[in-house]
């Protein structure tokens, strides 16, 4: 069944939780890093072909999906015998903020919203990306799933987050590129759930059938001087 249009009245929202990779930042960096750069370095270290390295590592990566190991740089450094943080620095020129993110963060701050970066990313990844993008100062708090001991894919995550950050789910928005994480947030009762379909500058944008999708956060900024925007049922990609 098609989703009805979603009216976002910013007067009814106090708190905004935002994911990082694919949501605020271009996921092209992460996709290139894990799918191409790490296998390349692994192949060089172990004297095997890049194709063989890609197949082996992709199996290893998939085995840890929806766990904290998935984003734990120390875990992968130990598993692969590579210094993953150092390898990230080799391609850090690909780390980029999505268009209109800064404008959206400024809009939220201007209107007194509490803004939290809520991510599965490991602290070492956060340090690299926040240093290069300089977006950290826009947030009232930065919470890694590793701090809470649960990934966002776990239904218990959002309640545990509430113990660390006070928020009313009925007056909270979550922006995410992961439909799995949006679903666990919906089950917890977070009311405003926004799917970021343009997660990468090099991939075709995704269209969610379960959540209202946007390409850019500018779509959530009112343009008429008011405090309301409406997201249509669906949009082309």
UniProtKB/TrEMBL annotation:
Example GO BP: DNA repair
CDD domains: HAD_like (cd01427)
One CC-aspect GO term: cytosol
Source species, domain of life: Bacteria
Keywords tagged on the record: Hydrolase
Enzyme Commission (EC) number: 3.1.3.5
GO molecular function ontology, one term from the record: 5'-nucleotidase activity
Name of the protein in its database record: GMP/IMP nucleotidase
């Amino acid at each position: 069944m098609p989703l009805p249009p979603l009216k976002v009245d910013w007067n009814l929202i106090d708190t905004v939780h935002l994911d990082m990779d694919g949501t605020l930042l271009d996921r092209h960096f992460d996709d290139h890093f894990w799918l191409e750069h790490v296998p390349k370095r692994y192949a060089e270290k172990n004297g095997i072909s890049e194709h063989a390295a890609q197949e082996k590592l992709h199996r290893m990566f998939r085995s840890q999906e929806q766990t904290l190991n998935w984003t734990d740089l120390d875990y992968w450094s130990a598993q692969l015998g590579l210094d993953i943080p150092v390898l990230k620095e080799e391609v850090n020129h690909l780390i980029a903020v999505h268009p209109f993110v800064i404008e959206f963060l400024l809009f939220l701050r201007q209107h007194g919203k509490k803004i939290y970066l809520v991510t599965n990313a490991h602290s070492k990844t956060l340090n690299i990306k926040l240093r290069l993008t300089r977006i950290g100062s826009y947030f009232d708090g930065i919470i890694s799933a590793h701090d809470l001991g649960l990934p966002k894919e776990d239904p218990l995550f959002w309640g545990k987050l509430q113990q660390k950050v006070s928020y009313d789910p009925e007056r909270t928005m979550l922006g995410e590129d992961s439909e799995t994480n949006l679903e666990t947030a919906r089950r917890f009762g977070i009311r405003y759930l926004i799917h970021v379909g343009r997660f990468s500058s090099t991939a075709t944008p995704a269209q969610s059938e379960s959540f209202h999708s946007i390409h850019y956060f500018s779509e959530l900024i009112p343009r008429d001087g008011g405090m309301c925007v409406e997201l249509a049922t669906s949009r082309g990609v």
